[in-house]
Amino acid sequence: MNKHHDLVSRYFHACSHLSAAEIAAYFCSDAVVYDTNHRPVTGAETIGAFYVKVRDQWDGASWHVDTFIDGVSVAASEWTMLVRTDGSKKAVRGSEHYRFRDGLIEQIRQYWTYNPDDIATALKDYPYEEDARFTSEK
Hints:
Layout lengths: L2 H15 L2 H5 L2 E9 L5 E2 L1 H14 L4 E9 L3 E12 L2 E14 L2 E8 L20 H4 L3
Parallel strand pairs: 1-6
Antiparallel strand pairs: 1-2, 3-4, 4-5, 5-6
């Protein structure tokens, strides 16, 4: 197992079972999580509190890495979040693109759609106009 896969697996475990402070320890202090369903979550402490809130909202949600592709300073995963609703467990699936700095998670771009009837997957408030990957001519 490579170091990024191990880091992400431990971060998912923390989101599933540990405190906000323990989750925050996997992130750079100025980290940001971009998502398709909500505004960006900025700062390690805020990110930790956010995942505890999500876990509590879904009655003990748990996150699991399904597939993982690694690079030097970036990686991507497909994941499953198991939630409890209406008395049963349901699977929510998505993917994340990671950027790392100093052995911690610096940025997550999270793609999943809460409303399966809406296929738009643009990240909420992502600065596309400032990212050369999205502004250069194809």
